[in-house]
From TrEMBL:
Residues 2-65 form the DALR anticodon binding domain. This is arginine--tRNA ligase. The keyword Ligase applies. Gene3D superfamilies: Isoleucyl-tRNA Synthetase, Domain 1. GO terms for molecular function: arginine-tRNA ligase activity; ATP binding. GO terms for biological process: arginyl-tRNA aminoacylation. It catalyses: tRNA(Arg) + L-arginine + ATP = L-arginyl-tRNA(Arg) + AMP + diphosphate. InterPro entries: Arg-tRNA-ligase (IPR001278), DALR_anticod-bd (IPR008909), tRNAsynth_Ia_anticodon-bd (IPR009080). Its EC number is 6.1.1.19.
Length: 65
């Protein structure tokens, strides 16, 4: 019987948030016209992953930070 461990989801989300935070701190998302939409797509993707992960853990995500 396979066991499910919610802490694995929590650890994954924490790691994704750390990596994205470093990226966000070092890259100007809107500055480069050629990369703007790609970077915005990345931001949206990370938002979706974090929000859905929190939903799986039954944690409400804040609307703003």
């Amino acid at each position: 019987m396979e066991e499910y461990d919610p802490s694995q989801i929590a650890k994954y989300l924490i790691e994704r948030a750390k990596v994205f935070n470093k990226y966000y701190a070092s890259v100007r998302i809107l500055e480069n016209q050629n990369l703007r939409y790609s970077r915005l797509a990345l931001v949206l993707s990370v938002k979706i992953v974090l929000k859905e992960g929190l939903r799986l853990l039954e944690i409400k995500a804040p609307k703003e930070m």
